[in-house]
Amino acid sequence: MKHGLFVLLFAAIFMLMEVEGNGCGCGYNYANKATDGPAPGARRLASYFKKRYGGRTEIYNNRPVRGGKNLSLHAEGRAVDIYLAGNNGRRAFDHAVSIACAHGIQEVIFNRRIWTANGGEHHYSGSNPHTDHVHIGLNRCGARNFGA
Ligand SMILES: [Zn+2]
């Protein structure tokens, strides 16, 4: 009986940690100023997904959003592109969405689909269809703290 209570207690604490994550939430921060390289959380996010799904990863690139004028999250080193396709890409997309709000992920894009906290998952109409890579964008807090 005592043992059972301890198991319940630990399970509750573990679930709380899973829900709370790093406290960064999944609120959206637009990019507005290029940095000079990848953010530490983005590096850790890249290795977290590479370890589980494989694929080449890219982070830093000082450029506008493809087909648009806004600065890309890649210019602030806050987005990771993981070169995966098909089911593997979709699994990585679902995985990123499932941990997003606990860990400071603000957007996930793959195969003409985009997820954000505000919009949920819906059609992505950007000029790059993201059929050969999963794009995972971190908010500023996540860019510092993901995986820390
Ligand atoms: Zn990208």
From TrEMBL:
**Keyword Signal appears in the UniProt entry:** yes
User: Domain ARB-07466-like C-terminal, which positions?
Assistant: 37-134
The residues the entry assigns to the signal sequence are 1-21
| This protein's UniProt keywords | Signal
Provide an example Pfam family for this protein.
Answer: VldE
Instruction: Supply the InterPro entries for this chain.
Output: ARB_07466-like_C, Zn_M74/Hedgehog-like
Q: Know the name of this protein?
A: ARB-07466-like C-terminal domain-containing protein
